[in-house]
Amino acid sequence: MSWTTWKGDCVSMPTTNELAYIAGLFDGEGCIQCKQIWEASRRKNKPKKYKVWRITMEISMVDETLIRWVHEKLDVGTVLINIKNKSPSSKPHWKTQWRWRCGHRQAYKVCKMLWPYIQLKLPQVEKIIDHYEPEFLMNDKVVSLHQYKQNMDME
């Protein structure tokens, strides 16, 4: 099976084995954040703080080929390099670190792919999925946001 990216490139969907392997990488080396933080507005004249969502997923390690492989298979996010020996206080045994990172809707897409396979970080993955697929109670029944809006004549 293949799918088309927003750039128009045809990319093959990762296999179940590849997704399970990537889920294992996230369980061992990954970091998943889904939290609200206070962030200052960027307007000079009216500084104000707003509550914003910080939704990110990242894997950091010294193996560049594995990070690039994850980026190629998931077809989202960015690959960054963190050179450890730049500052005078750095230690000579520190290695350069490679990081794959994505956020918000891209993180939601990755969470949907990895959900059946992830183990340790399942609560964070489900929190991201629930953030983008909210459900509401109506007459003691769980309904989707779309159904709720239809019932309330909001659409």
User: Could you list the spans in which at least 5 consecutive residues all have pLDDT below 50?
Assistant: 1-6
Rg over alpha carbons: 19 Å
Extended strand count: 8
**Proportion of strand residues:** 25-35%
CATH third-tier fold name: Endonuclease I-creI
Question: If strands are numbered along the chain, what order do they take across the biggest sheet?
Answer: 3-4-6-5
CATH homology-level superfamily: Homing endonucleases
Number of helices: 5
| N- and C-termini, Cα separation | 35 Å
CATH-level-2 architecture: Roll
CATH top level label? Alpha Beta
What is the string of helix and strand elements? EEHEEHEEHHEEH
The helix/strand class is alpha+beta
How many discrete domains? 1
Mean pLDDT: 82
Query: What overall geometry do the principal axes of the alpha carbons give?
Result: flat
Helicity, as a percent range: 25-40%
Short overview:
The protein has about 160 residues and is of the alpha+beta class. Helices cover about 35% and strands about 30% of the residues. The strands form three sheets. It has a four-stranded antiparallel beta sheet. Strands 1-2 form a two-stranded antiparallel sheet. A two-stranded antiparallel sheet has the order 7-8.
